[in-house]
Design brief:
Elements lengths: L6 H19 L2 H8 L3 H7 L3 H24 L6 H18 L7 H9 L4 H27 L9 H22 L3 H10 L9
Helix pairs in contact: 1-2, 1-4, 1-6, 4-5, 4-7, 5-7, 6-7, 7-8, 8-9
Keywords: DNA-binding, Transcription, Transcription regulation
Protein name: HTH-type transcriptional repressor DhaR
Organism: Paraburkholderia ribeironis
Length: 196
């Protein structure tokens, strides 16, 4: 009889530990303890903590894309309303965690991009895919005359994501929604202002 695999449990636990403690703060020992897995199981399934973190990022981004899909695929809303809907969904998720955790993609960008080529490349690929999803919705809003066509949709998507990630960082410091609310209010009254 073969031994049970702890791989999935380690990944699930690792995601939660890294959300709470970050990349540097999450030790392999802590991850295995949270998974109820022997320490040796980690090295049986993952060649390094860095490679493990890449898989955790993929898992986190897959979950994030579910929120993107929920908002941006909702054809009962206009494209501009869909963009706002995504920010509102994420605000709700962050509120459920009492403003104490942010976005793993943003956190890893700050913590690992200067030290890990593997994670930096993975983060760049994630941002490119993420940006493209928003750029398509922004282009649709521009074509519908909802928002100004003054800027390229890809540039606007980059601005949206980068600024939103910054607002999430401030939210973590302040432990409250003010930075998120401020960002949403300003961006939808300026850059994404509804055209008359």
């Amino acid at each position: 009889m073969s031994k049970p695999s702890f791989r999935e449990g380690i990944l699930a636990a690792g995601l939660q530990v890294m959300l709470r403690s970050g990349y540097e703060g999450a030790s392999v020992r802590d991850i295995c303890a949270a998974a109820g897995a022997p320490h040796g199981s980690f090295t049986n399934h993952f060649r390094s903590k860095e490679a493990f973190a890449g898989e955790v990022l993929d898992r986190y981004f897959a979950h994030t894309k579910e929120f993107v899909k929920k908002a941006l695929d909702d054809k009962s809303l206009t494209p501009r309303q869909r963009l706002k809907r995504y920010l509102d969904i994420i605000s709700g998720v962050l509120a459920d965690d009492k403003w104490s955790r942010g976005c793993l993609i943003g956190d890893f960008s700050l913590e690992t991009a200067s030290r890990s080529g593997l994670l930096r490349e993975r983060l760049e690929a994630i941002f490119q895919e993420w940006r493209a999803l928003f750029a398509a919705c922004i282009a649709e809003a521009q074509a519908a005359g909802e928002i100004s066509p003054a800027f390229d949709p890809m540039d606007l998507a980059e601005f949206l994501l980068a600024s939103w990630e910054g607002a999430i960082l401030r939210m973590k410091v302040e432990r409250g929604p003010a930075a998120l609310d401020r960002f949403k209010n300003i961006v939808f009254q300026t850059i994404f202002k509804e055209q008359k």
